[in-house]
Amino acid sequence: MKYFTIQELTASETARQLGIDNTPPPATIVALTMLTEQVLDPLREAWGSPIKVNSGYRCKRLNTAVHGAPCSQHLRGEAADITVGAPASNRLLLKLLRQLNLPVDQVIDEHGCQWLHVSHTSRRANRCQWLTR
């Protein structure tokens, strides 16, 4: 993990405010490491400047608190919501992500590129889904 840490992939203001322990179990740390090494670090390297993680791993209680999907990949440490700032910049990041052809499971342009949801899994073949919400 060159550009990201487990701490930033598990940090949550909501968890802090609600007193939720968002410490990932060992298997989830493995998944977060794979997500970072396979997708996030290569994307950051190509982007050339920092990428902020808005949300990474979420324990079940935290996922419920933020109204995450019940089967969210965030629960397994397979997903991160990222941004480089404004939607226009996030659109450029999305374009770069497509060009890099990284092993993504899902990439979701969230709410007009307010942020990007990116995921990677080792449990099955990555679906390479590109979605807009």
Notable characteristics:
133 residues, 5 helices, alpha+beta, 40% helix, 5-stranded mixed sheet
Radius of gyration (CA) equals 14 Å
Number of helices, where a helix is a run of at least 4 consecutive DSSP H or I residues: 5
Strand order of the largest sheet: 1-2-4-3-5
**What is the CATH architecture annotation?**
2-Layer Sandwich
CATH topology: Muramoyl-pentapeptide Carboxypeptidase, domain 2
Question: Beta fraction of the residues?
Answer: 15-25%
Tell me the structural class. alpha+beta
Mean pLDDT, all residues: 96
Summarize the biggest pleated sheet: 5 strands, mixed
Question: How widely separated are the two ends?
Answer: 29 Å
Morphology: globular
CATH class: Alpha Beta
**DSSP, total strands:** 5
**Which stretches are poorly predicted, pLDDT < 50 over at least 5 residues?**
none
Helical proportion, percent range: 25-40%
What would your notes on this structure say?
This protein has 133 residues and is α+β, with helices and mostly antiparallel strands. The chain has a single domain, classed as Muramoyl-pentapeptide Carboxypeptidase, domain 2 (2-Layer Sandwich). The chain has helices spanning 6-10, 13-18, 26-47, 60-65, 87-100, and strands at 52-55, 79-83, 106-110, 115-119, 129-132. A hairpin with a 4-residue loop joins strand 3 (106-110) and strand 4. Helix 3 (26-47) packs across helix 5. The protein starts with 5 loop residues before the first helix and ends with a strand.
